[in-house]
Design brief:
By secondary structure, this protein is α+β, with helices and mostly antiparallel strands. The protein folds into 2 domains: 2-105, Glutaredoxin, CATH 3.40.30; 107-138 and 177-284, Up-down Bundle (Glutathione S-transferase Yfyf (Class Pi), Chain A, domain 2). The protein is built from 14 helices and 7 strands. It has helices spanning 29-40, 60-63, 84-94, 106-118, 120-130, 134-137, 141-149, 160-174, 180-200, 214-229, 238-248, 251-256, 261-276, 281-284, and strands at residues 2-3, 20-24, 46-49, 73-76, 79-82, 153-154, 157-158. It has a 5-stranded mixed beta sheet, with helices on one face. Helix 1 (29-40) packs parallel to helix 3 (84-94), helix 1 crosses helix 10 (214-229) and helix 9 packs across helix 11. It is globular. The relative contact order is 0.13. The structure holds glutathione. Glutathione is lined by residues 28-30, 52, 57, 70-71, 83-85, 117, 120.
Length: 288
């Protein structure tokens, strides 16, 4: 569990916040996962929207709450928790109704969520490549500078995760986007994972068992993003495709994973551009 120490928190006003406060972004997959979870559990929460496209996450104010510069963040009665899966685990324990991380499957859930977290940079690669034009996705110089100058410490230790986040954005700027090899690699990683989940769904109604768990929410969010990127599931992953259609009937799931309207328009236009310039997902799918 990643809970910040008092000394990690530089934006001290949050120490006085009462109740469940969530700092999140509409279009962020980790935020979407957390919001679906909160709504399914009927937990009351206060929203603090952090616009990642405008660089709100690299403001001194936000970095004083999460030095990693990422969302989501939970502030629960003044205590700051980061990392979406840790936040969810903590809240599932705190609010016992409708358990989505049940005790009897806790190890398997943990394992699958760790895998999901480990491929988060792959999802980001594909998002940055296929959802919107590179110039929109590049961080501004002043934001990068702010991020560099912010604290490097989480839980009293020098933080590797912050370094990874910083170097991701610097490389994106330096290489003018995501490099082709990285795109191909991320696509292949997802194909392998989709096969694995499809196999699991041939045995049970949901990924872990016949009951919905947080792993279903996490993968639903990933599938929604992959769908936006241009993936289709029907032929190669029939069980996954059936499960996806069932979950899409849940209004909470669908609403929380819809792209904000401006991004929807940009993304549709960008897809046409990628298609006419032979750079769409389809042109990458068979590369090894
Ligand atoms: N392991 C983290 C990953 C969080 C993460 O990478 N969040 C993304 C949005 S999904 C973010 O805040 N990115 C900041 C940016 O791209 O500027 C978690 O699960 O909370």
């Amino acid at each position: 569990m990643v809970k910040l120490l008092d000394t990690d928190i530089k934006t001290s006003e949050v120490k006085n916040w009462k109740g469940i406060n969530i700092l999140h972004f509409k279009g962020s997959s980790c935020s979407q996962k957390l919001r679906i979870f909160l709504n399914e559990k009927k937990i009351n929460w206060k929203s603090h929207h952090i616009n990642l496209v405008n660089g709100d996450n690299f403001s001194e104010w936000f970095l004083g709450i999460n030095p990693r510069g990422i969302v989501p963040v939970l502030v629960d009665d003044g205590e700051v928790h980061i990392e979406s899966n840790d936040i969810i685990k903590y809240l599932d324990k705190k609010f016992q109704s409708n358990l989505l991380w049940p005790e009897n499957f806790k190890e398997e859930i943990e394992e699958l969520l760790e895998e999901e977290n480990n491929i988060h940079f792959d999802l980001r690669n594909l998002t940055m490549k296929f959802v919107a034009p590179t110039f929109l996705m590049k961080k501004k110089d002043e934001d990068i500078k702010n991020f560099e100058n912010a604290s490097n410490f989480v839980e009293g230790l020098e933080d590797k995760e912050k370094k990874m986040q910083l170097s991701y954005h610097k490389n994106f700027i330096k290489n003018d986007g995501v490099q082709i090899d990285s795109v191909v690699n991320s696509i292949n990683i997802f194909k392998e994972k989709l096969n694995k989940i499809d196999k699991k769904l041939s045995e049970t109604k949901f990924i872990i068992s016949n009951e919905l768990t947080i792993v279903d929410i996490a993968w639903f969010v990933y599938l929604r993003r992959l769908e936006t990127i241009g993936f289709s599931f029907e032929i190669e992953y029939p069980n996954l495709s059936k499960w996806f259609k069932i979950l899409k009937k849940n209004k909470n799931f669908l609403k929380e994973t819809s792209l904000p309207l401006p991004l929807k328009i940009i993304s549709s236009l960008y897809k046409i551009y990628l298609s006419v310039t032979n750079q769409s997902l389809r042109s990458f799918l068979n590369k090894k």
